[in-house]
Amino acid sequence: MQEKGTISIHTENIFPIIKKFLYSDTEIFLRELVSNAIDATQKIKRLASLGQYNGDLGDLRVEVAFDEAKKTITISDNGLGMTADEIKKYINQIAFSGATEFMEKFKEAKDANEIIGRFGLGFYSAFMVADKVEIETLSYQEGAEPAHWTCDGSTEFEISEGNLVERGTEITLHINKDSEEFLSKQRLQEILDKYCRFLPVPIKFGTKTESVEDGVDEEGKPKYSSVEVDNIINETNPIWTKAPADLKDEDYLAFYKELYPFSEDPLFWIHLNVDYPFNLTGVLYFPKLKKDFEIQRNKIKLFSRQVFITDEVKDIVPEFLMLLHGIIDSPDIPLNVSRSFLQADSNVKKINSYITKKVADKLAELFKNDRKAYEDKWTDIGLFVKYGMVSEDKFYDKAKDFVLLTNTAKENFTLNEYKDKVEAVQTDKSGQLVYIYTNDPSKQDAFIQSANKKGYDVLLMDSPIDTHFISHLEQKLEKTSLKRVDADVADKLIGKDDVPEHILTEEQATKVKAIFDKAINRPAYKVELESLNPDELPVTVTMDEFMRRMKDMAAMGGGMGFYGSMPDNYKVVVNGNHKLVSRILQDENEDVQSQLAKQAFDLALLSQGLLTGADLTEFVNRSVNLI
Q: Where does the Histidine kinase/HSP90-like ATPase domain lie (predicted)?
């Protein structure tokens, strides 16, 4: 049996899906209906500019009102309105977008892309919150008759003669019982602020009280009185719609404070403005970051034609720039039909690459034009730069010329400058260049001093991203490795040929090791005897560089969970050439030998903050007894 046919989609089947499941959040209804009203207003302006409407435009605006007693919300505009036939065409035919048809008809017009609507579905979001929806409308067309449309959420509607006497449209929602939360001034204001605060046509929502100067009093001082004025909730020309040449620093800072009122001033900003091969405008700010930079995410807001869409922009903005703040607006970013999230598209990748390039160019410009100011901001900028270099090779290729390495003396160097600084002293016997770093200068101070005595420079690597940045540098820099300053004793950090001579016999070395093994008696601490410079510490506690780094990465969530679960293991390096070792060997009292060894070991732990609690108390008491 073989049969062919056409799949039938009935309105009564698809309508509930549109009403209930098309939009992820019911509050979206207000954004959609206000956007439609904005479109109607923009269209009449466009027709007037093309000479196809010669009437008086009047004071173009959109108004949102509600009546808690009647349980209604009304969105009205004085845009181009509709005829009864247009209602049948644009409202009764689901997914027939008047915006799409308008743009096609007037695609040569300069600002046709200002129209917001795309899919012809936004109107039906009203039924998520309303039992009944009414439309009162009067078309701009000469001789048009007002029309009234009503629908109770079923597939049946009614069109009759309307009551409007002026051009425009008025949509009234009769709010259902489950959605009465929206019959609140505060709730509606909240939604309007979220989605509509930068729409290009004034939006009125009730009134507000303002104080105005009203003459002077008997003493000649100005008097003030309170007046009710329209509450316009939006800024119709936000800074990202303006040319950078028309803006001052104060404008950018004021806008930042408007977006993030409790934040410190940003370090600097980038104004995005491109119209080919895609349209993109916006302003991205570099904020001052905290150490815990994870909490800074989701601060970039995505708009489409000045309508807020989302603050989830991970596909548009590179991962490492998710720490930025600001606005991105593009009509070319593909959205799903509910305008709630992005869809995969080649333009998204192009925009992502463009933003990366703009940021790299801006940083390079700052570095080149005013290095001192750049260095002053490095503590904050460095996190972005290092994160970007680890995340994207293209960014690394640009940033390698303006990334800075900072040493414990707070001096800054580019990668090439630092190589020139340390190459002569910090190259080992195999020709490998070794960079030494600290992630905690206070705890590792003794190690830093020992390294400095040998003429070694120590880098400061204490930001949250440095664990990954260090490993990335080793992959990128030729014949270069990085070692934490406490990964070994200073004499062993960089392998040289000039190793100090042994002063202990083999028998003495064996005896010293046995004394320390017995005194320490901890499986996690492995004792090794080394012949070091007599001026070095008698005992040093270190952790292998590889193992410590893997543990650091595991702690940062770097995919090294296996190492994170392994117990800590340390190497206890006893300096066989130190005078304390000679004293231990000379003393015949085993108890004194053990106490001296334990004291030297605990002192090494104390210098690194590893001695706490009862062990610290025991150390203090032992010190008193030895004295």
A: 24-179
